[in-house]
Amino acid sequence: MKKYEKYLLGIFGGCVVLSAAFLLYRILVLDKGLGLFDSIDVVLPWFLGFGALFGIIAVLVSWRLRKRAEAGKEPISKLYMWSFILSFLPFAAILIRSVFRGVSETLLDVVIWYAVIIFGLIFPVFPLMIFWQVLYIVKRIQYKEQMKVVSD
Fold this sequence. Notes:
mainly alpha
């Protein structure tokens, strides 16, 4: 692991710890609960924590792909490719379910279903899936360009 990657992991890890500490302080000491996302002191720790987790994932994936390339293996493995393909399943499931709900259910059922989808599935899962897809595409393009330069 390169020196700058270790520093980035330390910074991102510190952000995760600070975010978790602030949320625990808010819940346990101040007895305010998680609160509504209407003020900066509630929203900022969540964004800081999720951004730091995405940063940690990006650094570790970059390190792993570089390690595979240095070992003479294909940087983008079949498992990584399948994880990219499977990351589209939540999108497909919601699309299929929405079509069936829209055709066969009443308006109230559709509204309740979309509320469950938005607050239960989209917020925690979709940003991670979109991040994973973007990271895969960026890394794939990056390693294709590196292979083209090496072969020339």
